[in-house]
Structures are given as C-alpha cells and as structure tokens.
Amino acid sequence: MNQPVQRDLFPGALEMMVLQTLRGSPRHGYALAQDIKRTSQDLLQIEEGSLYPALQRMLKAGWVKAEWGLSARNRKVRVYKITPAGRKQLEREISSFDQMLAGIARVMRPAQS
Amino acid sequence: MKWIINFVRRRGSDRQLAQEVEAHLEEKMADLMDSGIPEQEARQRARREFGNVALNRQDSREAWGWVWLETLVQDLRYGARILRRNPGFTSVAVLSLAIGIGVNSTMFSLADGLLLRPLSVSRPSEIVTVTGKTPGYPFGYISYRDYVDFRDRSVSFDGLVAYSMSSFGFSARPGDLSHMKVGLLVSGNLFRVMGVEPQLGRGFRPEEDLVPGRDAVVVLGHDFWEKELGADRSLIGRKVRLNGIEFTVIGVAPERFTGLDQYLRPAIFVPLTMAPRLAANPEGNLLDRRNDRGLSVKARLKPGTSLAQAQAELVAIAKGLERTYPDTNRDQSVAISTELQARIRDSPSDAALVAMLMTLAGLVLLVACANVANLMLSRARARTREIAIRLAIGAGRMRLIRQLLAESLAIALAAGLVSLLFAYAGAAFLGRLQIPTDMPIVFSIKVDARVLWFSLLVSLASVMLFGLVPALQASRTDLVPVLKAADADSSRKQRLWGRGTLVVVQVALSLVLMAVATILFRGFRAELLGGPGFRTDHLVMMSFDPTLVRYGDAQAQQFYKALRERALSTPGVRSATLTTVIPMAMNQRQENLVPEGHQLPKGRDSVQVFADTVDDRYFDTMAVPIVRGRGFRESDTAAAPRVAVVNDQLARHYWPNRDAIGKRFHLGGANGPWVEIVGVAKTAKYLWIAEPPTEFLYLPLAQHPSSHLTLVAQSFGDAAALVAPLHEMVRGLDANQPVYDVRTMADFFQARAIGTPGMITQTVGAMGLVGLLLAMIGLYGLMAYSVSRRTREIGIRMAIGAGRGSVERMVLRQGFILALTGLAVGLAASVAAEKGLMAVFSSTERDPLAYVLVAPILLAVTMLAAWVPARRAARVDPMRALRDE
C-alpha cells in the first residue's frame, strides 16, 4: 500500500526533522512542511501529505501534543508542540544519526581518494 | 485498554484530520496565489504537492492501530445484513445454538449454586480451610485450644477464624415464644478477617472474645433480620433472648454476606466464648478441653504466601502441640485446602453431579453446533458462486475466512442473547427446588454476572465449533470449475453417513427422554392416587428440642407429657400425638434388629430397617390402620414388657405365611433385648412417594424416650388455625422453649410428595423437548444440505420427466428413513429404561401408552422438518438448475 515516495529518506528521518523543527517553536502542519522544505533548500523531496501519518504516529507515541489554534492567515489549524518525551527521543535519534553519518563517512572516504 | 478509548474517539479524530488537511491545502493555495499564481493552478499544485489525500488519511488512521477492529465491525455488519436476508436460516441456526448455550448457562448457574460460587467475603480467593488431620481421618474438626495456638503462633495468615454451627432458641422480646434458629458460634475476629462490614451497628470487639461467658452480644444475619424481624433498625442495642439468656444485639450483617458455606444462611452470630453458658451441658466446656474437637477453621492467607508454606508452618505448630500435650494431641496434624477443594471433599456427590451435568450440557452444545455447522455447509454450497467471484476479484483467503467467521460470530452473539431467556427460565425453575425445613438452607440458583460472562464465553467458543470448519471449507472453493458452472462436488458419501448417524441419535435420545417423562408422570400420578398410607389433612406439626434450654432427661419427659396433655385439651384439637420422625421428612431413623427364627444372609448379624418411636395415639391420629393385633397402649410403659409394631412388609419378609404377632426380635443387635411384636400396621410411604414397599418398625415412646420430638395435632377444622393456640399453649408451659418446623401436613406433603416429583417429571420432559427441537433442526439441516447438493441431479430428473410429487417423495423418503431408524433405536432404549424405572415404582405393569403417545408425535414433528427441504426440492426449476449449477 505504501508507495516508495520517501525514497530519499531513511526510516525515522521525517520524524527526526519534525521534532527538530518543533524544538524551536510550535507549528501547524503546513508551516512545518514549509519550514522543513525551506531549511533543506528543497534538497529533500518530501510529499507534504506524508507529514500527517508521521504526526499521528508521534502523537500516539507521546512525542508531540496538538492543540487547535489559528494560523497567520486566521485559519483554524492544529498546532503541534514537542513534549519532554519528544525532546529525549530527538536527542537519542540525533546521537544515533551522528554515529551513522560517521560510519557512512568512513566507508565512503577511501572511494573518494 | 487505551485503544478502546481511541477507537471510540476515532470518528472525531477522523473529522479533525480531514479539517487539518483542508486547512493545509488552503494555506498553501493562499501562499501560491500571493506569489501571483492563478487560483486554478494554485489549487492543482497544492493538491499535487500534497500527494494522495485518501491514502495519507488512511495511513494516519492506521497509525492508531484500530483498523482491525474497524474491519471486524464492518464484517459483523455485513454478516448481520446477510443473515437478515435469510431469516429462515438465521432463526433456525440461532434457535439451535440458543438451546445449546442456554442449557450450558442453566447448568452453570446450578453448578455455581451448588459448588463454584466463591464465598461472599472480601477477596475470597485468599480464604483457605484448615482441617484437623489424624491417620484415620484427614479432614476432621479442630478444638478451640488448638485453634488459639494456631491463631497466635502462625505468621502465614491475616487471621484465622473458628466457627461451629449451632441451634438457638430465639425470642425477640422477653415472654415471646422462642423459635429455633440456626446460627454460628464464631471467633470474635470473624468480621474483621473476612472483610465484612456490618450493615448496621458494629461487629465484635476484640475484647468480646476473651472472657468465657461475659459478653452476651449477638450479630443478626441479614436474611433473618429482614424477613423475620421486619428489618427493624431499632433492634440495635436492644435485648433479645437466646436459649433463655439475655443478649444485646450489636449489629446486622450486610446483605451480601451469606455465611461461610454455599447453603447455610446463619440467622445469628454469637461469640464462641458464650458457648459454655448457652450449652445444655456446662461441664463439657469446649473452650477448655483440647480434645473437644468441634470447630471449623477458615483462614486468610497473607498475600504472597503459598498454600504449601502455610501448611508447613501449621504442621510445625501441630508437631509442637503434639510434644507439649501428648495426651490429647497424639497423631493430631493439620491440612490446608482451598475453598473449592474443601467443598468437593465435603460433598463429592454434588461435585459428581455438577461434573455430570456440565458434561451433558457440553454434549448438547456439541450437538447444537454440529447442527448449525450442517446448516452453514448447506448454505455455503448455495454461496459457492458468490465466494468464487469474491476470490476471483482479489479477496484474500484470510479476509474471506474472517468474513465468514464474522457471520458465525453474529449468529453466536444473537444466540447468546436468546439463550439468556432459557437461562432465566431454567434458573427460576431450578430455584424452586427448596427443602421444607426451618434450617436456613438456600440453594441460590440465579442468573448473575458470573452466568452472563459464562454465556458470552460459551457463545464465543461455539463460533470455533460450528463456524471454523464451514468457513475453511467454503474459502477453499476451487475457482475454475465453479466459475465454469460445473458441479464441483465430488460426492462424499461417508460424511453424509456420519451426519445421518448424528440425526438418528438425536431422534432416539429425544424419544427416550420423552418416553421416560411420560412414564414418570403416569407413575407418580398412580402413586399419588394410591395415597401415602397416612393422613395428610387436618394435621399440624411442631418440633421441640428441650436440651437447648438445658433440660435434663427427666425434665424433658415431664415437658412432653404436659405438652401432649395441654395439646389435647386445647380447643379445636381432635387428637394429638408425639413422634420422633414424620413420614417422608429428611431425618429418617434406622434400627438394627435380629428377627427370631430367621436365617440372616452370610456375613450379616442383623438387619437395618427404618423406624419411628411413637406414642399410643400415633396410629389413630395419623390414620395408619393396624391390620392385625393392636397398636400401642398407655400400659406399654418403661416397666412393662418391651413391645413393637411392624408393618405388613416387614412381617411378610421375616415370617412369611405365618402370623407375626407374638414373634420376637433382638433390638440393636444379637445382644440387644428381646422385643415382642404386638401389632402389624398397613404398609405406608416412609421416605418418599414413589418408593417400593419398605419395611418399617414402630417402637413405643414410653420404652424409648427421646429428647427431640414432634407434636402432631389433628384439628376439627382448618389445621393452620391451630398454630396460634398451640403456640400460646407452649408459651404457657415454658416461653423459652424453642419450637421449630411448624407447618401443616398438607403443606409438607405438597412440597415433598407432589412438588419434587413434579419437578423431576418436568425436568426430564423439558430435556426431551429440547432434544426434540435439536433433532428437528438437525434433520432439517441435513435434508437442506442434501437437497442443495443434489439440485443438479434433481434438475436432470425433472428434465427427463420426474414430477414434482415424486421429487418431493424422494426427499421425504430419505428423511423418513432417518427418523424411523431413530425411532426404532429410541424405542429399544426406552424399553430398557422402563425396566430400570419399574424398580422405582410399586406398580409392576408396563405402560404402553408412553410409546403410543410419544412415538407418532415424534415422527410427525421430524417429518415436518424434512418436509420443508422436500418442498424446496420439488420447486427446483430444471432449466435454471441445469444452466446455473
């Protein structure tokens, strides 16, 4: 059923980016998508819609909370906020992400030289 | 449990999600339009970049993990829709299963009342039973002194409770006539350890259990307080009399606390330390004597302590007591068992009955499930095309099985609901089974939460029994041949044969049960018409036990003498007599005797016969005819030669063809005194209405005095109207004297001789009807299945010229053969059963009416079940049958 739209991302990457973005300040879904796109300078291909299943999973895990609020354009939107559990999860993911990056870098370096 | 909340909230969060996605798209459109893109294009781009809306929403829902439940609800709904479209099939299946489940629920409520229901205390699973153990007998009582040592030295328990059942003469006010009530002498910690908070007033204080005879306090049982004392709240703090001693009422037990076993509902709770003052014999002080073992002990295990640990600790304490008190405690050990173990041990017959009934009920359920499975299979054949199409367009096999199982689940749940009707009716019926006695014994058979849970469980289990096989088989449909419209069925004769046997057995069993019910009914009626052999009208009785108010033997005899004299002079009394037992009561006595000149069977030195000790007015008052010789006379005193009256049956057994008058026997064994027979009484009923002629012995009261006697008074007019004046008369003799079992003989006879046999007949009859219903459904299912298999064959037959009538006859013949086989088997079994039954009744003639009546009815009814599918077969359209199948 899942189409391979997230080809560019490894599992959990989207969640990590969402948490990282939310760490700054709470955001609603559309703003989140825009921010992630902007910061990555459109290098990452994210289908905006895939954000919502990810957000639901994170709500269930208790990493984020959601409240209804108003967008800058005065539209009723759900605003997501990171929870303490979400911060802890983010730290764990970042450290394991760093390790993975370092590992990949070591493997890739000989090929470069 | 959280997923349930999530599931309930899912509609709300679905809507929220839709709203959220909508807002997302609108925001994006607005952004794009701000950067100068026209509205139409902005909308398309927003959608494109969002991706598949529906898929993303579904993924979001799945994140919460309730999809499986959603499909289940969907499947159930679809199943229910299909079932609604086939009301005939559905109602037959539901009814069949409902019978099966209902029988199980009813039997469970009986088993619960007899054996399984936990004690009505807090956390009943922690309560264990402690019994005294000797090499000869492992489950004895415990003495008070030993109990105190166990209680004070052990650490495995949150308290040990000792109690003993006792009778009390109770009067609410001084001067009121005292009535006998059954209650418990208990250790003072009873309510604390059992976690029972009195509904009114308070429980016993710790110091009220210390000094023998000091604290005359009583807690009343709820039933007794509510039903006999009018739920009078002002009783708390008031004085009542127990065995003539003043006691202060300190509390009323809560309604839910029904005592310390399944049956007995104690009317009163009194501290054990009061036992010496209440006792008839103050010297035998159970509080002091270590070898006076008469107490039951229950204990609450500390959480985390195992049965084995507690047992080891108590055994060690018992060993210590054995060393310290070798005189009284030699070989005295203890054993611990759970409540259920103790109950099974105390009444193994109940446990066996429960096991047997539950097994039977399980069999009925199996038969019902087999019937429904047959029905499902016959329907699955009709649906092969639907199933094949669904498989062809891509339904997974698991999904299909799930769908079919959901249909079965819908049937089972509906049947579970209907079965509650049966369960309620069954429990109400069984609840009528009560013993006519003053003992507060209650068979509490009811449909409570436990029974409801059990029914649900059985319903769910039945799905696996009747739903799984048809579902698996249906989903295994071989696609190609079915879609090519060929007859996919390779005939499996053997299967059908097995199903045929099942139907035959059902028909046979229902015939046996209904025949037996008819025989029983007619048998009981014949016995009742013959009469019990004693008077049942114009008699009222009341029983006494003067030892309760500490009467000695001489005092008791004096009391009874005065009692009968005063009774005879009471207005409205025609006659009055004293007897130790009442015919057909529960407490029959037996005597051993050695008849003179009679060769006893090898290995036996005496014979045991039922006996009664009566005064000189008994035969007249009870209208038991003396056929030869004389009844007892006032001259048969303790000083006179010992005499006896025997019944006809006994006389003919030991002195056949001779006159028994003047013959002698040793009473109580070969060394017993000689007793001469002076009269022969007509044989009556002694134990219950349908007994074969039984040998019986009467002894004169004056020569065999007894302290427990029943006064039977004969009235001129209404017997019940004598109760009040007789009570008044007893009060005049001794107000503290407790009376019990006060009732008219007519009421007693109704309950014992008419009610109980009626219930037995009705039970067997109801079982027969249930069996007949199941047999009908079984035959119907089998025939329907067979017709659905043979549609093509029937089509061909009709195409080449068979008429509708001949097709109908062909199918009917098949059913007829099955029903007839069942009837033949059933008749053979019934004749065998009747032989067994004849041993029970006094009549020896066979009762052909049972068969003449039952067999044709059964045949007609089963043929009706076969007729419906036969009609369907006859209506087969040959063109369609040949084209379609």
Strand ordering within the main sheet of chain A: 1-3-2
Quaternary class: heterodimer
The total beta strand count of chain A reads 3
Sequence of strands across the biggest β-sheet of chain B: 3-4-9-6-8-7
Tally of separate helices of chain B:
29
- Nearest-integer average pLDDT of chain A: 80
Distance linking N and C termini of chain B:
49 Å
Q: What order do the helices and strands of chain A follow?
A: HEHHEEH
Q: Which blocks of ≥5 consecutive residues of chain A have pLDDT under 50? A: 1-7
Q: Determine Rg of chain B (CA atoms, Å).
A: 37 Å
The dominant shape of chain A is globular
Structural class of chain A: alpha+beta
General description of the model:
The complex is a heterodimer of chains A (113) and B (885). Chain A is of the alpha+beta class and 113 residues long. Helices cover 56% and strands 14% of the residues of chain A. In chain A, α1 packs across α4. Chain B is 53% helix and 15% strand. Chain B has 29 helices and 22 strands. In chain B, the strands form three sheets. Chain B has a six-stranded mixed β-barrel. In chain B, α6 crosses α16 and α7 packs across α11. The A-B interface holds A 1-3, 5, 28-30, 33-34, 47-50, 52-53, 55-57, 60, 71, 73, 75-78 and B 16-17, 19-21, 23-24, 26-28, 30-31, 49-53, 55-65.
List keywords for this structure.
heterodimer, A: 113 residues, alpha+beta, three-stranded antiparallel sheet, globular, disordered N terminus, B: 885 residues, six-stranded mixed beta barrel, 22 strands, 15% strand
Outline of the structure:
The complex is a heterodimer of chains A (113) and B (885). Chain A is an alpha+beta fold and 113 residues long.
Secondary-structure blueprint:
The complex is a heterodimer of chains A (113) and B (885).
Chain A (H helix, E strand, L loop, with lengths): L12 H12 L2 E2 H11 L11 H11 L2 E7 L5 E7 L1 H29 L1
Antiparallel strand pairs in A: 1-3, 2-3
Chain B lengths: L1 H7 L1 H25 L4 H12 L2 H10 L4 H19 L1 H30 L10 E7 L8 E2 H10 L3 E15 L7 E8 L3 H5 L5 E2 L15 E4 L1 H6 L11 E4 L2 E8 L15 E4 L3 H4 L14 E9 L5 H18 L1 H4 L3 E6 H8 L1 H35 L1 H9 L4 H35 L17 H18 L1 H8 L3 H5 L9 H38 L8 E6 L8 H17 L3 E7 L9 E7 L11 E8 L3 H5 L3 E4 L13 E5 H7 L9 E4 L6 E8 L14 E5 L8 E7 L7 H11 L5 E6 H45 L1 H9 L4 H35 L10 H26 L3 H7 L1
Parallel strand pairs in B: 4-9, 6-8, 15-20, 17-19
Antiparallel strand pairs in B: 1-10, 1-11, 2-10, 3-4, 3-7, 3-10, 5-8, 6-9, 7-8, 12-21, 12-22, 13-21, 14-15, 14-18, 16-19, 17-20, 18-19
